[in-house]
Design a protein that fits this description.
Helix content is 35%, strand content 15%. By secondary structure, it is of the alpha/beta class.
Length: 386
């Protein structure tokens, strides 16, 4: 089992940081990779055509390993999840009356492109809201999602966990139901991939996109994703020279190429070979692979289980361990306590969390310790009693 890994991060020791779902702290190895990438611009004469391809290819191979696919050509680099969802939506021929199914309070990047697509094509957005809070919420929500998938459903677009409170969704059952009706399954993995296992081999999703700066421990302004066969012949959002065949031959770029690179590579962003962010993302994913998502979940589950039981016994509402991941969960307050007021009181004690919806969202990683969780819980109990 992992031991606390705070020594590998750049962290302010005065703060108790439990907010990785907002933004991860910096791994020292990632910072070093970024600094080395920045310094490369000092010697541009040493940057060769192969450098525009090789490191990005290595990064995609690491991410393919992380999400358990044997085909790195299905991995693409994007600047953000909104970019990935937009390119997917552009390549779906939604017919009038067909539906895109989303979840209640879904993150906007995985909603706005679908809203536009439905509006422009005469389709419909179907929202599956969360049921009433309580111990049966996860099961009831998953059942409602399955019931909402029907013959007119063209797309199911959702997260692996809910970004506001960590509610886990049964993607295996949802994949099976969506396949029955011929619907595509599009996943925003920003709040799960890197911190919990995700397997393309098992789930066979049609597309997956992740922002890099949360659980992938990478830089802001970067993202990465997977595109399945449904998008192999699609139209990219932008016409980048890097996405065309034979682009490694710089002398031949004046001979315009009509054919794209295969599979997901046709859809990648321009300037994907970023000499700063690509090495940073690669270093981060290499560290995650060394730990393994399974070990991260084991660590965070053990870290949080007893403290959250104490909160539950005191009247706070927290999902049961089996209904949420260890790395991301929501705490709902008893009585008339105001979440924003609680956040400010925690911050005054240098405990950093987020408020999302009605939940105090807590998101520890392997840099967190049992004393960090004890401090959070003791402060919440003290405020409750007061």
């Amino acid at each position: 089992m992992l031991t606390p890994q705070s020594h590998l991060f750049q962290l302010d020791p005065e703060y108790t940081y439990l907010n990785c779902a907002y933004m991860s702290p910096m791994l020292k190895s990632v910072e070093e990779a970024g600094m080395q990438g920045l310094l490369r611009k000092r010697t541009p004469h040493l940057i060769q055509p192969a450098d525009f391809f090789d490191e990005a290819t290595e990064l995609k191979a690491r991410f393919a390993q992380l999400i358990e696919t044997d085909d790195p050509e299905r991995i693409c680099l994007v600047p953000a999840v909104s970019y990935g969802i937009s390119l997917v939506a552009k390549n779906i021929d939604l017919q009038p009356g067909e539906e895109v199914l989303v979840l209640g309070e879904q993150f906007p990047s995985n909603y706005y492109p679908w809203e536009r697509l439905a509006r422009e094509k005469g389709g419909k957005i179907t929202v599956v809201p969360a049921p009433t809070q309580g111990p049966e919420k996860r099961a009831a929500w998953n059942e409602a999602i399955l019931a909402a998938i029907r013959p007119q459903t063209r797309v199911v677009a959702m997260g692996h966990v809910h970004w506001t409170d960590g509610t886990k969704f049964d993607l295996k059952a949802i994949r099976a139901k969506s396949r029955e009706v011929g619907a595509l399954l599009i996943i925003d993995g920003t709040q799960s991939v890197g911190a919990m296992p995700f397997s393309i081999k098992e789930l066979e999703v049609d597309a997956l996109f992740c922002g890099a700066y949360k659980w992938l421990l990478g830089p802001y302004g970067s993202g990465i994703g997977y595109l399945g066969p449904a998008f192999d012949g699609g139209v990219p959002l932008e016409e980048s020279w890097l996405n065309r065949k034979n682009s490694i031959d710089f002398s031949g770029l004046v001979d315009y190429e009509s054919e794209y690179e295969p599979k997901a590579q046709r859809h990648e962003m321009g300037q994907r070979a970023n000499f700063i962010t690509v090495p940073m993302m690669k270093a981060a994913i290499e560290q995650i692979l060394e730990w393994t998502p399974e070990a991260i979940q084991t660590y965070t589950k053990a870290l949080t289980q007893q403290p959250l039981e104490a909160l539950r016994e005191a009247g706070f509402q927290v999902d049961l361990s089996e209904d949420r991941p260890g790395h991301l969960f929501g705490i709902r307050l008893p009585g008339d306590l105001d979440p924003q007021d609680i956040k400010q009181k925690l911050l005054a004690e240098k405990v950093v969390v987020s408020i999302r919806g009605t939940a105090v969202r807590v998101a520890p990683h392997v840099f967190a310790t049992s004393s960090d969780m004890d401090k959070l819980v003791n402060l919440l109990l003290r405020v409750h009693v007061a």
